[in-house]
Amino acid sequence: GMGMGARGEVGCCARCGSAAGETRESEREDLWVPPGLSSVRASSGAASSVATGYDDHRAKTPPPDLPSILLDARIVWLGMPIVSAVSELIIAQLLYLQYKEPGKDIYFYINSTGTCQADGSVVGLETEATAIYDTMNYVQSDIATIDVGVAIGQACVLLSAGTKGKRAMLPHATAMLHQPRVQATGSRQAIELAIRSREVQSERDDMLGILSRHTGHDVDKLREDTQRPFYMQPADALEYGVIDTIVESKRVENLIGDVKKAKQWDAEAGLVSK
Fold it and tell me: pTM score, two decimals?
């Protein structure tokens, strides 16, 4: 009898303990949590809370950055010397815009010293610029080129390569043509220097041929004019055939694509409901 009583007490304690545990478990599950938080059970069995609503005001995608806004407006920006990383980006943007909306105008803004630094030191290969030029001709879209600062050397060639009637300069911009320059040769053999010299002359002939195609001047005149740096103010560039217009008005028209409205940016970024 005493054994039965002991077992009964043990069973009762077990049931009471189980009931108490369930009560505590129920209390944990019924604990108040701040709005926007939900109670979840961790692997240990203890209740924990994770945020599900406090970040609802945050963008579901990153907010638009300046390069994205420019690209959305079909603007390609060349703002530094033409080195491999720059030509890679420019070509990728041109191909993307061609893929996105074939045939719609692209706006190519230029403020570059070409394949050289401002002091004339060579930083890029001439082929970096011709790669951009060939891509400009490859895409179906008209390309409006706008010189907003300086367009020197190969940058000036790209300025002239825009679609006829859509090449422009701002009133205080400058353009300058010069022949291709040779990078530091170092300690090379005479035959290597001769080979490099022939290659530079070939690059010069290519550049003069491109300029002749877009300015209307014959190659001999261009070769003579570019024997030394050939600077042009907007009026000079207009007369020389590098550009077609000088943008005088503050109301710049037909030089920028359609830009999304602010509400559209916010909706697509998840800031507001669509």
Answer: 0.69
